Every structure is written in structure tokens, then in C-alpha cells.
Amino acid sequence: MRETGVKHLIYLNSIFMAALITANFTAGVKLVDLWGFIVPAGFVSYAITFTITDIIDEVYGKREGYWTVRAGFVASVVMLALVWLARIMPPLVPAMQETYVRAFDVTARIVFASMVAYLISQHHDVWAFHWWKIKTKGKWLWLRNNLSTATSQLIDTVLFITIAFYGVVTADILLRMILSQWIWKVVIALADTPFVYLGVHLISGKVKILRT
Predict the structure, then answer these.
(1) Residue 209 within a domain
(2) pTM above threshold 0.70
(3) Total tally of structural domains belonging to the chain
């Protein structure tokens, strides 16, 4: 039974890492216009990470939720290091180097903003989920999922946009970027509620583990 629980946790963490790395690659290279709201293309991928941590929090406990968040940070650092290493390798064809730089190059400010926002918001999400779990006596998963994710996504959006773009764009554009991204992240959070229930039901129905 315990081995089955570990396997499910590995799958969840794999989905988390895939969504996080995809968000890191797509967020900075493409912006999209969704009915007047300007959002990065990676916002859906990043929203999935909160879905996964909520499932892990509910089934496996707070400690495993924190470990997933920290492992994601390590994965992001390793990814950036490998991208940088590939960049400094001497290219066979100069034009290919230019294409590589255009596709993968990010500024230090964007990287710093992303890392700070990720660490603070994801840790807050794990903490808030369990705080609401205590307040609701373990009931109303839909409420805990949405309240923790909505507040954490707001923290993430405000931190990232402010650190990355303060002084680069005007205050009204900065505010519009924050509101646009947060509104869509909340929409995704609401839409992912059935998947949180499904994930919790499928996993907790098969394994019995010690919650922390």
C-alpha cells in the first residue's frame, strides 16, 4: 500500500515539474490577448502547479506539499543552468546561436522576479490550504482549494509583475497586467476544482498514508 502511495506521489510531482518548466519557457516568450486581457502564454501551465500541490496537500499532507514546492525551485535552477550552459557552447552555425538566444534568453530581472514570486506564493498556497483545512475541520475541499489558490496567485502575480516591470511600464499598465493575469488565474482555479476532487478521490481511495 505504501509503495502504491509513493508511485502516485511520483506521478503527481512529474506533472508538477512538467507544468512548471513549461510555464518557465512559455511565460516570457509569448503574450496573448484573451478578450482584452493581456496574459503570458504560460499562465495555464503555471496554474496547473497549484492544482497538483492542492491534491498533494490534501492526500499526503503539508510536509510533502512543501517538498514538492522546493523540488520545483531546484528543478527551475537546474533548468536555467543547463540553458545557460548550452548557450555558451561554441555554435557550429552562427545563425542557430541567434535563434537559440531569441528563444531561450531571459533577463536576470525576469528570472529573479519569477523565482521570488514562485517561492513565496507556492509556500503560501501550501500554508493557506492547511490553515483553511483546520478552520473547516477538513470539510469543503472546493472552498479550501479556491481560497488558497486565489490568494496565492494574487501574491504571485503582484510580486512577479512588480519586480519584473516596475519602472519599465507606466503604473496604469502595470496595474492592468496584474489584474488581467490574476483574473484569468482565478478562472483557471475555479475550473480546476473538479480535477482536484477527482485526483483526491482516485488516490486516497487506493492508498492509506500517514498525513502530517
Answers:
(1) no
(2) yes
(3) 1
